[in-house]
Amino acid sequence: MSSGFSLDEDEGNYFDLDDILAEQQKMQISFNVDIPGLGFLENNPGGPLHKNEKVLMPYWIIMCLTLIPLSDDGNIFELNYPKCFNKQCLNQLIADPTTVNLYQLCPYYYQLGYNLLNVAQDSFSLSEILYNAFRKRIPLIMNYSQQVHISKEKAEFLRGLDESERQLYKIGCESVLSMKKWINREYGTLKIAKSLNKSRLIL
Prior knowledge:
Layout lengths: L16 H7 L2 E6 L22 E5 H7 L11 E4 L6 H9 L6 H4 L3 H9 L5 H23 L6 H8 L3 H21 L10 H9 L1
Antiparallel strand pairs: 1-2, 1-3
Helix pairs in contact: 5-6, 6-8
Subunit structure: Component of the GINS complex.
Keywords: DNA replication, Nucleus
Pfam families: PSF3_N, Sld5
């Protein structure tokens, strides 16, 4: 099972459980028009969902709503950032991203942020903040993955990794183990292929 934020592909994997969980993260939106038939979302079965009414919806539904055009070329809804992306949290990421517990904010923090970029109007600033946060955290993640000793600071930092960072940390730990096995010759001895031996005899 991979993390929600794919390291190899731009698009999520339809059959990946982590991608599914990431797209289930709810966001608050308010509609700019009345929506017929959705009144049940505000305890009004059979009626419309009224304009400016705020509702929580999973990301995958919100993405579907972005495909609905309006006659005046406006947006059918306005998106309110989730709490984990409010001004206070983003300011903490800007100040010192290595001290922020991303897992506590959202286990799929980067994936949720990536999803927001598809629907948010000011996506450029959010993109820059996430990029800089990841760039500053990744050296520490790789550094800790090479260390056997677990200090208090290391344990606290690792608890705050989101799912994609945990995947990278696991890869780092596995690379150390592979290197140790190679140094200790636990992978076996290299042998010359029989075909090469035959060619030497001919020469």
